[in-house]
Every structure is written in C-alpha cells, then in structure tokens.
Amino acid sequence: MEYDLILRRGHVIDPSQGIDRILDIGIQKGLIAELGENLPTGPGTQQIDVSGKYVCPGLIDLHGHWYEGSCFGIDPHICLNHGVTTVVDAGTTGFVNFPEFRRNRIDTARIQVLAFIHIGCLGLPTSLVGELVDLRFARPKETAAVIEKHRDITLGVKIRQGTMTGTHGLEALDLALGAAQASGLPLMVHISTGAKTGEILGKLRHGDVVTHCFQGRGDGIFSKPTGQLLPEVTEARKRGVIFDVGHGCGSFSWETARRAFQYSFYPDTISTDLHRFCVDRWAKSMPTTMSKFLHLGMSLEDVILKSTCAPAKAINRAEQLGTLRKETIADLFVFELQEGDFEFEDTHLCIEKGQRLINPHLVVKDGEPIEPGSYPASLRELYDCDQDVFRFVEETAQETV
Ligand SMILES: [Zn+2]
Predict the structure, then answer these.
(1) Cβ density class 187-219: b for 16+ within 10 Å, e for less
(2) How close is the Cα of 91 to the center of ligand 1, in Å?
C-alpha cells in the first residue's frame, strides 16, 4: 500500500481506541489507512515529522455560532486554525433561515458544519431582544419539517431557556421538546438565568444536551440555599442527559467547575460556544478551553476524549468522527503541550495562571495538511449596541452560584 501522507512518530492519543503511544499514521485518499511503526513510504508519499508533538482526532466543537447573518455568528473556518475539523452550530438559525445558511455557508465550507435548528423561526438573530419573548416565533411543526428535509446535517432542536423565553418558561421548552420528539433527535437546552434548571432537567430525555453546565450565575446545577449539587442533575446524568461546557462570554466559572469536580461531576463534552463576543476574549478557541480543564486537573487523555469521541457520540457520528480508526475520515489535530505561565480567564473575570497550553501545530482535514493560522477569517464590525453585551458581562461578573 502506498500512503499519500504519513505523520511520523507523533505521540498518538485516541481515546476511542485506548491508544496512547508513539506511532506513525498513514493516510490514503482522505482516510486513515494505518497506524503503526515505521510505515513504508512510496514515491508519492508526503511525510511530516511530528516527533515531540501529540496527535489526536480532529476536534469537534459541539457548541458554536457559525451563521454570519446573526449578530453572534462568525466564520467557522477560524476553527480550522485551532485544530477543530467539525463544528456544530447551536441553533443560530431556525426553519426560516437554515436553508440559506446551508446553501451559502455549510455546503461550501472546508470545515464540516452540522447544526441544531432553533425552535424560534429565525434562530438567534440579535442580542437585543430575546428570541422567544413572543412565543409565536416558536414553530415546532416547521422546525421538524426543515430538520427532516436536511436530515444529513441536522442534529436536533435548540432552545435557550431564561430571559430570552420571557415569561413562557416551560411552555417554550415543551414546544422545543415536541419538535425534537417529532424528529426523533435530541434537544439542546441552554441554561442561564430566569428558568429553574431542576425543572428543565426533569423534562429531558436520554441523549438531550444541557449546555453551559458550569456557567455559575443565575439558575445553575447547584441548589441556591445549600450550594449542593441538585438531585435532578444526578438523576439526569443517570438517565443519559449530556452535560456540555459551552464556555462563551457568560458561561464558565472556575468556582462552579471546581465545586462540581468535588462531586466528581465532570463535563461530558467540552465546547466553546464560540461567537462574535467571545472569540477575542474568554472562550477564544477549543485549545484554550481545553487547556482550562487541564488546569482544573483533568488528564490530557480525558480532555481529548471530551473534545473528540464524546461529542461524536453525542451527535450520533462516532462511527466516522472523533476517532483514528482505520477507514474513517482523516481529520487530525497535531499540537504541542507548551509549558510556561499562561493566563486563563473565566467569564466572571477571574484570571488564573496555568502551566500548560495546548498549542496547535498542524491540522489535517480530509487527509490534507493545513497550517494553523492559514485561515485568516475576518470578523464583522462591532457597533455601539454590541458594547451592551460586554457591559453585561462586566456588570454581572461577580454573580456566582
Ligand atoms: Zn451558544
């Protein structure tokens, strides 16, 4: 067999197969062909020496916003610079604008984009007004119909519970659950302020996703008077509800994560919630977010698991994504674990110093090597009204629950 590309002597970590050692990886026709030692070269084989570096499956970011027709959206190709080869759009569009998002962005993208469809017909158009303060925007039937029509890339239904649902609370959640049930797919629920997390969790099913699990403000995973982990959280995990990080600019607290770890409550999946307001500060990237969990004491293998095969499983793509098994898509992330003093900030403006940073070295997408930084994706301009989002983060920074 002649390989198109061999990555030589990298420290391969693939939690999907329990691999943690120095290996060559042979790639042919965009697929993983072989993992082994001293793989043979042919006349047409490109070789890249990655000795001293780590190699893992291409990262999967389970929560981000990639539709630039929304004030939150950013170009998903930014993530190729970070080692992410599959991004999941967390309901930036609804049934009205998803077909256009697909046609103009998803279908032509170099990076793989999959999507949850928001129960609100326009998704998340703006930060100015909650998308479901008027419940007439929620359209279960049409949401299920657009999911069905785009079944190859749609993953389920999204809803944000909190001030963005106005006074509708669980009524809005029921509409979203109805659409998810009709599609036979998961619901992804954002938890924040103004909607009781215990009540929300009571309604969720095996495979549904709770995002922002360590947000630390408003209504979270701990009981307000006692500070104990809510019993509904433990029950939901037992039932197979998935707890996702979704860092963003308002949803990650060191204190909350540490307190959860004391209960041996770790996230199921690590994600950025990358959008226009947190790409320059706070979440920044998958490697930055992953490095924060290294700093909190999780092992490198566990951090990789929760950024590769765990999100692949959550979106029912574990056969093809988040793994280096033979015959799967050759999406890989090569990185170094840089040692030094690095500042990491949570969304409560607390800066901690960590000693290890996951630093991208090379990305392979569909078997083709890409230099990190070679996708200089531009961001939309910020307007006066956008500053309200940053002001809100500053003003509410001290709230932790
Ligand atoms: Zn989000």
Answers:
(1) bbbbbbbebbbeebbeebeebbbbbbbbbbbbb
(2) 8
